[in-house]
Amino acid sequence: MPRNLIVCLSALATIGSVVAQRPANTSICDYYTTALLTDNSAANQYTLLTLLVNTAVIGNYTEPSNGVLVPGILNPNGVYNGTAVNLLPYFNGCDISTNNDTVFNLTTNPPISQNFLDGGGAVPLMHNLPANDTTSNQYFLLTHLYQYFGVLLGCSKYNTAGFPAYGGVGSMYRVHQYMALDPNEIGYFITQVGLSAASFGVASSDINAVANALFSLFSYKCSPPVTVVPAQGKVLDSICVDSESRHREFLFDQLNGFDVVDLSVFISDSNQLNDIEPHHVLLSDNLVSFSDQDKDQ
Ligand code: HEM
After folding, report:
1. 221 lines ligand 1 (CB under 6 A)
2. How far apart are CA 117 and CA 226, in angstroms?
3. Which of 71, 79, 241, 252 could serve as a FRET partner for 185 with CA atoms 20 to 30 Å apart?
4. What is the annotated signal peptide range for this record (predicted)?
């Protein structure tokens, strides 16, 4: 058994006992790395993200002492809002929903089917690894998820030795554009991330802050560009392009003078998050959509 897994598993024995309130100036990543793995090192922050993402993807693979069950993103029998959800075909190559290269041109590079479970599937994830190798689609998908969610959760050691910087495509809109994801599919995915965090003893206030941020950033059709990964700058991040998805007000940024420059600050201060909640207004579809105006972004 790999050493980091032994450390993790022994840390997990304490799960459910993270009861103290997270200080407002400590990010979710830093706080729970310290709480669960003691030393707030880059390697431990990366391990925390590995635990969180792997559990969200395949469901519980460690016994949660608090009994929170995680069905998992790959579970073909998912349910969200009373609706059956099956995300597996997007990952196992059954759907033709993956970008062919990073040209993002429907005519010259139409979508392809790609198997993202080609690095051993669930087994390496259960051993706290991204894949059995370092070259598979699975390896790149999983490591990119650790890195991206590391930014979202404000990991202070992100982009230092032991915690690689995000190596994937910046725009989440581009990454997911051919999946045409609907609100239930996105809701199911985000719920698995939340349940995974809950299974490790993350406080419900922190889970709500993260879930709100995920819905806010990714689930509103035609959201204006936003900076999540600082090195990427402002990019289109809405992954909910299905006709059922709600539109976000086009002038959101300009009207409110609000710019998400540093999401780690954004997430670690839930008051800021509450501040923008009232602006999540449901707008009619006849608003000029951002992506219609600027398809090249
Ligand atoms: C809700 C927030 C979500 C976030 C923040 C997110 C984030 C990401 C990131 C960072 C990547 C890696 C991109 C790269 O390697 O360049 C990715 C890839 C992927 N995501 Fe998501 N995702 C979300 C929701 C979903 C949902 C709901 C699905 C539904 C099936 C999904 C399916 C996929 C697939 C299949 C890939 C591989 C795509 C590729 O590499 O071309 N994601 N996602």
Report:
1. no
2. 30
3. 252
4. 1-20
Domain membership flag for residue 270: no
Q: Is residue 262 part of a domain?
A: no
Q: What is the mean pLDDT of residues 273-292?
A: 25
Domain hosting residue 78, numbered range: 3-219
**From the CB of 148, is ligand 1 less than 6 Å away?**
yes
Considering the domain boundaries, does residue 43 fall inside one?
A: yes
Q: Whose CA is nearest to atom 31 of ligand 1?
A: 176
For residue 101, the 8-state DSSP code is: T
Residues contacting residue 55 through CB under 8 Å, at least 6 positions apart: 61, 62, 70, 72, 196, 199, 200
Buried residues in 62-75 as b, exposed as e (16+ CB within 10 A) = bebeeebebbbbbb
Q: Is the CB of 239 under 6 A from ligand 1?
A: yes
Q: Which two tokens stand for residue 63?
A: 């016994």
How many structural domains comprise the chain? 1
CB of 213 closer than 6 angstroms to any ligand 1 atom: no
Q: How far is the CA of 17 from the centre of ligand 1 (A)?
A: 31
Distance CA 38, CA 242 (A): 43
**Residue bearing the CA closest to ligand 1, atom 30:** 87
Lowest mean pLDDT among 73-82, 85-94, 219-228: 219-228
Q: What average pLDDT does this structure show over 92-113?
A: 91
Mean pLDDT of 265-288: 28
User: Residue 250: what pLDDT?
Assistant: 40
168 HSE (CA, 13 A, CB side): 23
Q: Does the structure show a pLDDT above 90 at 241?
A: no
Residue 248's pLDDT is 59
